[in-house]
Amino acid sequence: MIEVKEALEIVAANSSVLSTQKISVQKALGYVLAETIYSPISMPPFRQSAMDGYAFIHSRRHQFDVVGISQAGDHANVKLKENQAVRIFTGAYVPNDADTVVMQEHVMVNGDSILIAKMPEPFANVRNKGEQISAEDVVFDANTLITPAAIGFLACLGITEITVYKKPKVAILVTGNELVKPGKKLSKGKIYESNSVMLQAALQTIGINKVKVHTVKDSLKATKKALQPILKKNDIVLISGGISVGDYDFVKEALLKNGVEELFYKINQKPGKPMFFGSKKDTLVFALPGNPASSLTNFYIYVYPAVKNKMGFSNTHLPKIVRKLENDIVNDTGKTLFLKALYNETSVTILEGQASSMLNSFAIANGLVIVPHDTESITKGTSVTILPID
Amino acid sequence: MIEVKEALEIVAANSSVLSTQKISVQKALGYVLAETIYSPISMPPFRQSAMDGYAFIHSRRHQFDVVGISQAGDHANVKLKENQAVRIFTGAYVPNDADTVVMQEHVMVNGDSILIAKMPEPFANVRNKGEQISAEDVVFDANTLITPAAIGFLACLGITEITVYKKPKVAILVTGNELVKPGKKLSKGKIYESNSVMLQAALQTIGINKVKVHTVKDSLKATKKALQPILKKNDIVLISGGISVGDYDFVKEALLKNGVEELFYKINQKPGKPMFFGSKKDTLVFALPGNPASSLTNFYIYVYPAVKNKMGFSNTHLPKIVRKLENDIVNDTGKTLFLKALYNETSVTILEGQASSMLNSFAIANGLVIVPHDTESITKGTSVTILPID
């Protein structure tokens, strides 16, 4: 049995980043860049007006004849004399001769001529070519996370394809003779299998949308056989159940017989103690406890950062926030506790129903409060660390 | 022109929740419940062992003969006498006669009999029927957000279908003769169209995955015609560009001619001032500024809560966090500022490149710092409010 901190270090040390793939910018949300991107163009690609108004050559003059027009999308390079101006719109090409744009609100129009009532500074309201970025300059360094704004910036430079780290292929293997598929009749002694849909949904929150679910009977032979192809085809294998110490828990043995190396088994925490973590080549195996709340807790604490590591993220863990505690906490277990809790802008309340079999409190919780194994009590009003799960 | 606060109120007042639909629990992540859910079964459905160990009738006795076994999934209702015990596993059916389970770590086994070394309290390690929830009890009230844990809880009760509020149908209409599709050659005076992929990605972050993008030329007639079917088929219409004061910005006129009621036009903020918000029946229209950074800012401030309102969310806005400022801020505009910023666990730094045309800073920002219109300066070290966008 190891402490949470050590378990996290072992997971991180074994979660190497995946290989790369080319992907269209349009589909790249949530991926991490695997290359440095250089700009193919300058942005803006030409001198642009930042305002609707008039472009002219700055001088002491206030009165101008309007001799042309430059709309967005045009390339009207009107020749200008000192007493001439061009009607211009936001984003439009500023004629080569012009150096300044006055906004239309500061101009009085009289037929084909204008009088500038409030003279702007020289070069005002003109966006220079390459003001945002010059051709060949770095757009993004490798390891940048692709956000909506990043997609917008890449697209505005005309970039349509980028190289990113792949998302891991994840499979779930469900064990347990007691399990019945929701929708079917529940005979005596059986319960509904809920961990696979729960874990699929949890994976979906971090962008893993296609997950194959396998089920297997509680027998060493069946589990061993089922694991073989699953270990070959996937980067991360989540196994639900069959990993506590009962005589009918075959998962660990089946894993070892399939050449999976044990990296740790059991963590000094509550819930979620009976977890096995191992690897076979680059494939990671998390044998999660069968109890739903334990399973989901360990997903957030261990699987979540492993997925993010594989995808090349720099921040791989759930962010930590701090709030003032509304209840007293007693920890007489000597274990690290992950307590289902509801936090708001200022404080956090520990919910009732912390048993590892109970999902009710998890379903209304928006965070997990961490109580270190060597902390025996925390009094109301103390600041505690929360992992937000909403 | 109105203030940000008023604009937010108008958007909220006009974003009524959509109608409902039945959906499979498996696909319900991120939806909001539109019904109260009652449990069809008790959970656990029978008295369950919480441990691997032995079930027995609690008395002063310490020695027992093991007369049977109860595995998870079984329904072995072994008859027990006072001196008899049953080998039992976590989650398995506790025989009707037994009242207590002792964990195997506290037992010495000698052939077919056991000696309990550390006697548990009466009724220990037995999960009572309905301990988590009783049949007919409320599982979730209406308006509960469906999280991974909620999906798990519904599935473990055998529930396969629920009624939720629909997601809005969203379309994007892109205007601007200056725009060229990324991947094509950029002729003089043109720029790449990036707002549609950026807004699609932003919508994806809140679960709106299918968005139709339409493009139209800068003419009143074309815009008017294009809008007609789009307004009919969608719950939310985002229009990109064509809404500032230039002579070639036809969007507002085209909207009014299509029977869209103006709810506000222009907000006292920077970036993002030239925005039109209107409605036609229950369809909302956001005519967003063409400048990418303005467009994305207004997405987060106005479109985001409207989508969440339509879907029945209680918390519709981006959460607000507070950090200490690393720079001084001067606001001589009299407008509410939304500044691209990078925050960490303790502080926040305002980024360079705040111009409304610039996406670079947005692409590396993880938050928007709000500077109220009536705040003229904020000094370094002051706590400021941030909208996290990561």
Automatic annotation (TrEMBL), chains A, B:
Cofactor(s) in the UniProt record: Mg(2+)
Entry GO CC: cytosol
* One of the protein's GO biological processes: Mo-molybdopterin cofactor biosynthetic process
- From the UniProt record, list the reaction(s) this protein catalyses: adenylyl-molybdopterin + molybdate = Mo-molybdopterin + AMP + H(+)
Q: Which of UniProt's keywords are assigned here?
A: Magnesium, Metal-binding, Molybdenum, Molybdenum cofactor biosynthesis, Transferase
Question: What class does this enzyme belong to in the EC scheme?
Answer: transferase
Q: In which pathway does it act?
A: Cofactor biosynthesis; molybdopterin biosynthesis
User: CDD domains from the entry?
Assistant: MoeA
Tell me one Pfam family matched here: MoeA_C
GO MF terms here are: metal ion binding; molybdopterin molybdotransferase activity
| Superkingdom classification of source | Bacteria
* Keyword Transferase among record annotations: yes
Q: Which residues form the MoaB/Mog domain?
A: 171-309
What is this enzyme's EC? 2.10.1.1
Q: What does this protein do?
A: Catalyzes the insertion of molybdate into adenylated molybdopterin with the concomitant release of AMP.
The entry assigns this protein to a family as follows: Belongs to the MoeA family.
Q: What is this protein called?
A: Molybdopterin molybdenumtransferase
